[in-house]
């Protein structure tokens, strides 16, 4: 159960506020920080070079998929860091949340180094991989979507004492934590881990496992933060704003579906764009439910082996005035 005073909310921009960690007001944030510290890892601990023989004997389509994933993941890990630094950290005043965000920002940097490690190890054309995120329309569209929200947070004055300012804060969280990290990243993780299902790139799979473990906490933190802001600010609890949030997620699904057709234009053994997109729709339904909406697509999970990475939170009501589901299960997603 969240412990807090009625005078203080998690949103706030005062520099002199939030300088004392104890007493903890938001137990879920401090618990997630401690879990994140326990999860600390370093990319070069994974013997990625052992996968070179696998990569060299893979088909052109399979190597394209790995390169495509690196083209997207590499810049977007750093984009998430900008979203956190400019669009989240400055607008909250709970020190336990700041602790977690500081660890998350380090993790995003660590993920970037991990993907650079992949580019350094496998015979991938780095210039081509770097260029893809601006030259491939489906990939560029996803990035443009995210940049639009962070620009509002970082390049314009955001007044979080107003309803509009608070709405922008929540929109940014939905764009990054729910859509980018909770749907788009998980879609890519499933493709990356599918190689291991066929006994390929096992060490690459281990690297992705560590990243998924981090991202499961990022997703929990983001959804808990959204629900906390919603609970503490009844002016946000309108049907119009809920409909907008829901549509953002559905728009995110459409962008991901186009991206996945470029990721696997012809399919590979046991995997094609339609299969991945069914998984994307399943993910979107989970995220909708975690925010208290009804599922939209009503599809079953085609990748049952990814189930433990999908289900992160108890179901809550987006407009519930008193939410008792903020306490995080330390075993979930680990």
TrEMBL record:
<dbReference type="GO" id="GO:0046872">
    <property type="term" value="F:metal ion binding"/>
</dbReference>
<dbReference type="GO" id="GO:0004748">
    <property type="term" value="F:ribonucleoside-diphosphate reductase activity, thioredoxin disulfide as acceptor"/>
</dbReference>
<keyword id="KW-0812">Transmembrane</keyword>
<keyword id="KW-1133">Transmembrane helix</keyword>
<dbReference type="Pfam" id="PF00268">
    <property type="entry name" value="Ribonuc_red_sm"/>
</dbReference>
<feature type="binding site">
    <location>
        <position position="108"/>
    </location>
    <ligand>
        <name>Fe cation 1</name>
    </ligand>
</feature>
<feature type="transmembrane region" description="Helical">
    <location>
        <begin position="173"/>
        <end position="195"/>
    </location>
</feature>
<keyword id="KW-0472">Membrane</keyword>
<feature type="binding site">
    <location>
        <position position="111"/>
    </location>
    <ligand>
        <name>Fe cation 1</name>
    </ligand>
</feature>
<dbReference type="InterPro" id="IPR009078">
    <property type="entry name" value="Ferritin-like_SF"/>
</dbReference>
<dbReference type="InterPro" id="IPR033909">
    <property type="entry name" value="RNR_small"/>
</dbReference>
<keyword id="KW-0408">Iron</keyword>
<dbReference type="InterPro" id="IPR000358">
    <property type="entry name" value="RNR_small_fam"/>
</dbReference>
<feature type="binding site">
    <location>
        <position position="215"/>
    </location>
    <ligand>
        <name>Fe cation 2</name>
    </ligand>
</feature>
<dbReference type="InterPro" id="IPR012348">
    <property type="entry name" value="RNR-like"/>
</dbReference>
<keyword id="KW-0215">Deoxyribonucleotide synthesis</keyword>
<feature type="binding site">
    <location>
        <position position="77"/>
    </location>
    <ligand>
        <name>Fe cation 1</name>
    </ligand>
</feature>
<feature type="binding site">
    <location>
        <position position="218"/>
    </location>
    <ligand>
        <name>Fe cation 2</name>
    </ligand>
</feature>
<protein>
    <recommendedName>
        <fullName>Ribonucleoside-diphosphate reductase subunit beta</fullName>
        <ecNumber>1.17.4.1</ecNumber>
    </recommendedName>
</protein>
<comment type="subunit">
    <text>Tetramer of two alpha and two beta subunits.</text>
</comment>
<feature type="binding site">
    <location>
        <position position="108"/>
    </location>
    <ligand>
        <name>Fe cation 2</name>
    </ligand>
</feature>
<feature type="binding site">
    <location>
        <position position="181"/>
    </location>
    <ligand>
        <name>Fe cation 2</name>
    </ligand>
</feature>
<keyword id="KW-0560">Oxidoreductase</keyword>
<dbReference type="GO" id="GO:0009263">
    <property type="term" value="P:deoxyribonucleotide biosynthetic process"/>
</dbReference>
<keyword id="KW-0479">Metal-binding</keyword>
<comment type="function">
    <text>Provides the precursors necessary for DNA synthesis. Catalyzes the biosynthesis of deoxyribonucleotides from the corresponding ribonucleotides.</text>
</comment>
<comment type="similarity">
    <text>Belongs to the ribonucleoside diphosphate reductase small chain family.</text>
</comment>
